[in-house]
Give the backbone structure.
Amino acid sequence: MQRISLACLAVLVLLFMFPCAAGAALDVKVGLVWQLKGEALLGFEVEQGTYRLSIDDKRNTTVSTGVMYKAGSDAWGMVVFAQGQPIGFCRSIKFEPVQGKLPLFKIYSSQGTKVYRGSLELTRQVDGSLLAVNTLGEQEYLFGVVPMEMSNAWASKGMEALKAQAIAARTYLYTHYDAQQTKGYNISDSPNIDQAYAGYEVEGVAGKAVEATAGEVLVDKSTHKPINASYSSHSGGHTEDSENVWGGVDSHLRGVPDPYSLGVGSMADNWSYTASAIALGKPLGLGPIVDIKLQKFPSGRVRTVWLKDVTGKTVTTSGRRFVALYYPQGRNITTRDFLGSLFSVRRLAEGSNILQNPQPLDIFRQRQVKARGPQLNRIDTSVSPPLAVPSPYSVYVFSGSGWGHGVGMSQWGAYGMAQQGFNYRAILAHYYADIQVLNYHLQQ
């Protein structure tokens, strides 16, 4: 009896220490606030399978392919259209699958067409726009995250990196589940808020990494609770301590040298941004800049930037805020953009010919102006046309590496490690401190 009791006790202890892998699949409500933000008119229809349409939880209509519905918002509320004909105002619309091996629905918006798994719910927000929430299983959600955060193209040489990403994304979901609950969903689809999710159309071979790591989560070594598994695109050669970015110390998010990120990452690996003294001072309320000083963290990232203009006025700002002033918004990045806070700066003399300084300003060789050739004194920024009138002030070149906040896993670094033969557990151990990879299921 004593042996049996001790054995039972041991089992109970293990159950508490290592959460059971069994249990109901986690449902995830994803707020589609990235590409559908601010939309006042959305169309939707069945792409595959059979769905049930419910309006204010009262009307129930079985719908198959070929029937287009629309939801529009006006001053009176939300109105539903079927095949172009209005069928009444309502508070909510639910579009839920009832059968089909892989039920899919399609959403039409001003941004184009997207296909999703699972169900759709539409409600009208206070500002008059429509909120679309996609509910689906945890595994299916990750199928639409991992290819966006990394790439299906990485599977042939970087499957271990994709596995590391799948675990980091699953862990992020668990630690941020319900953070957006007051807004009507568990997590958003936006990489600017949570992590990127783009539905069924991006699914591909990266899904194998999700399946291969099913249930695996990053947990603290002592408590066996999921950690805050932050990650970013490219570390620039050194990851960052959490407190240097967000102000709070996290024992799992310690900056480490990251040689695996160097030499990979295309534009993120080596970029430079050029700005005239005038363009540099304008966002900060300064005149033409005559002096810049950088204070850095041990990682090499810029902690503060001190600037002085021609009148003697000075401004000190954080490195992250400084980058945000010149960061490319709403367009694809290039090697001539300001992408991160790991950078150095140099001042180029007034009036120097561009041909004497071919790097990193060679883009201007192809830009013709009314002078004998492109000149530094005609540069506003590296991503804008030459100035019509030469400037009497200097030009500054910011050269850097990395893209993103740099805390936790570097996605390009993980890819570099995978190419060098590291497995996903070694990758995660490099980027996160005091962790274990365990099977863990979040309870709803």
Observations:
- Residues 155-176 form the longest helix (22 residues).
- The two ends are 37 Å apart (CA to CA).
- Residues 1-23, 351-374 have pLDDT under 50 and may be disordered.
